[in-house]
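Researcher: We plan to redesign the surface later, but first we want a full-length starting point. C-alpha cells attached.
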C-alpha cells in the first residue's frame, strides 16, 4: 500500500473516532455548506445557516446596481437644485466649496489658510454649518462633498473632495467664477 493512501486511512479513522466520541458525549458536530449565487457559504449550525441565508437575501433586495445609482445622482443635480444649494448656504460655506473645487484633495490645514480661519476647530464649525444648511434643503452632505481621513503615524490628515455630479452641475452653472463675479458686483 502506498504511503499516501495509508495516511488517508489513518486520517479517516481518526476523524471517525473523533466524531463518534463527540456524539457519545452528547455533543453535536455539524457543518452546513450551501452555495448562493455561485459562492459557497459555510455555517456551523442550522440556525446560523438560516440567519446567513436571510442576510444574503436582504442584502440582495437592498442592492442597487451602480449604474442605476449614478443615473439617480446625475438626475438629482438639476441647475435649480444646484443654485438652491449655493443660495441656501452661508458665504463661508460657499468659499469652502469653491476652494475644494479649485484644489481637489485640499487638506484641512490648507483650507484653514484659504478661508482665513484661526484653526481646524473653526473649520469644523464651518463644515458643521454647511451640513446643517444642506439638511435643511433635504440634501445629504455626502451628495455634495466627501472627506477622506488618513492617519500618518499619530497625525490625522483630512482631504476634501466634491461629489462628481455636484461638481459638474456647478461647472454647468459657471460656478464658482460667475458666482464670485456677482458677489464682487454686489459689494461695490
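Model: Full-length starting sequence:
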Amino acid at each position: 500500500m502506498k504511503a499516501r493512501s495509508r495516511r488517508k486511512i489513518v486520517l479517516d479513522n481518526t476523524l471517525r473516532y473523533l466524531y463518534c466520541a463527540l456524539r457519545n458525549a452528547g455533543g453535536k458536530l455539524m457543518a452546513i455548506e450551501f452555495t448562493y449565487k455561485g459562492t459557497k457559504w459555510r455555517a456551523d449550525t442550522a440556525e446560523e445557516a438560516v440567519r446567513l441565508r436571510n442576510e444574503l437575501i436582504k442584502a440582495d433586495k437592498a442592492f442597487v446596481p451602480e449604474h442605476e445609482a449614478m443615473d439617480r445622482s446625475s438626475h438629482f443635480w438639476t441647475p435649480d437644485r444646484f443654485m438652491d444649494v449655493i443660495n441656501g448656504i452661508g458665504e463661508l460655506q460657499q468659499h469652502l466649496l469653491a476652494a475644494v473645487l479649485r484644489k481637489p484633495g485640499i487638506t484641512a490645514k490648507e483650507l484653514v489658510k484659504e478661508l482665513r480661519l484661526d484653526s481646524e476647530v473653526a473649520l469644523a464649525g464651518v463644515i458643521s454649518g454647511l451640513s446643517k444648511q444642506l439638511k435643511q434643503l433635504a440634501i445629504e452632505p455626502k451628495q455634495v462633498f466627501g472627506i477622506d481621513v488618513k492617519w500618518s503615524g499619530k497625525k490625522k490628515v483630512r482631504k476634501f473632495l466634491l461629489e462628481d455630479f455636484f461638481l459638474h452641475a456647478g461647472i454647468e452653472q459657471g460656478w464658482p467664477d460667475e458666482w464670485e463675479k456677482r458677489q464682487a458686483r454686489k459689494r461695490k
